[in-house]
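User: Can you recover a sequence for this backbone? Please restate the input before giving your answer.

Assistant: Of course. Working from this structure:
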């Protein structure tokens, strides 16, 4: 069974930075490509960033390219999302999951609010 716990969200001014973490339980963490996703009220959850099993390859949504960086530490079973140059439109609940996501693995997420 895989459990995902996100943390690191908060309130930040536009132009600021946050680093999100996703702690993954289970010894099979290294088998999974991982991703970060986000959702705002009334909208579908959207892909933000992904990383392969080794951490050597990443991909991003166009809206965050050049500002966000995804990484993983397989020794710590943790995935990170460094978010720089935040914009008000980045305000959302952020979630991690495998890539592609598995419904049963969705956690509580962490809330990010970017003020103008």
């Amino acid at each position: 069974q895989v459990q995902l716990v996100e943390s690191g969200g908060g309130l930040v001014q536009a132009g600021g930075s946050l680093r999100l973490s996703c702690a993954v339980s289970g010894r099979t963490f290294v088998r999974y490509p991982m991703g970060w996703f986000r959702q705002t009220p009334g909208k579908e959850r959207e892909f933000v960033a992904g990383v392969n099993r080794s951490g050597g390859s990443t991909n991003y949504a166009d809206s965050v390219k050049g500002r966000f960086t995804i990484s993983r530490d397989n020794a710590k079973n943790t995935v990170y999302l460094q978010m720089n140059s935040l914009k008000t439109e980045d305000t959302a609940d952020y979630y991690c999951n495998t890539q592609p996501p598995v419904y049963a693995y969705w956690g509580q997420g962490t809330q990010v609010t970017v003020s103008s």
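That completes the design. Residues 2 and 13 are 34 Å apart (CA to CA).
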